[in-house]
Amino acid sequence: MDWIQSLNKAIGYMEDHLLDNLTCEDIAGHVYISSYHFQRGFSLLTGITVGEYIRNRRLSLAGQELILSDIKVIDVALKYGYETPESFTKAFTRFHGVTPSQAKLEGSNLKSFNRLIIKIRLEGGTVMDYKIINRDLFRVFAMTRLFKAESSFSDLPKFWSEYYLNGYHKKVCGMMGVCEPEKSGCDEFRYGIGREYAEGADIPDGYEVLTIPANTWAVFRCVGPMPDALQEVLKRIYSEWLPQAEYERIQDYDLEMYTEGDNQSKEYISEIWMPVKKK
Fold first, then answer.
1. Mean pLDDT of the chain
2. CA distance 269 to 266
């Protein structure tokens, strides 16, 4: 299924089940995408997380229901997934700027958050610098940690900063970022910092060897300071390249390749390696 079609189908599923106990795993499974890549692509294209979308839609509908009916605040809170009136009031007030009780008063101004429809909009005609390569199985050794997809854009740069601040780069230079494919039923993914492993080399404490299977890779060149340059190319991959390419991504290791030098320079070079197959 086309990437944009898959996202719109996922949004339709969320809309049909807004009153249910939705999980990202359920939504992604409905359109046969891994939870990690679904959340990543959704956030890149919309600027908000899946959780924020669901929460905003529920609070928007809750506000409409309060002003259009005589329903009690506690009943609306329970209907839209809040366990207590207090937690609902806090979220409602943060979103609308007024309390649920104030919303029932005539003339109250409420915010509306409408259903999303994702479309492709071609702009600029700028070129994406990428290549398709085949590579045999290889190994890397890395220090790994578990992350949640929803907060990964802010948490991964923190992991890199910590890696250098603690001097781990003196043991193993951070030439690669390795994102492991998520395991079924798990809401976290494993990400590692390290480099390629030479057979027989010593493995420092706190590191492990990961086996990267043989794959076809779409390799995208990023130029500019980190992490902004890499995240901007990621956004273009999901919004421009995947919807029109002859390839589709597969669920396997994702890689980031880094070069030596000042990673805050305008000329700094890095790469995104995405496992793909022909459509």
1. 90
2. 9
- Neighbouring CB atoms inside 10 A of 177's CB total 24
Q: What is the DSSP letter of 238?
A: I
Q: What pLDDT digit, counting tens, does each position of 2-26 carry?
A: 788 889 999 999 999 999 999 888 9
The number of residues in the chain equals 279
Encode pLDDT of 24-42 as tens digits: 889 998 998 888 888 888 9
- Residue 220 corresponds to which tokens in the numbers above? 């995208």
Assign residue 14 a region: left if phi > 0, alpha if psi is -120 to 50, beta otherwise? alpha
- Domain 130-278: CATH superfamily is Regulatory factor, effector binding domain (3.20.80.10)
Domain locations in the chain as residue ranges = 3-103, 130-278
Q: Residue 175 corresponds to which tokens in the numbers above? A: 């030439």
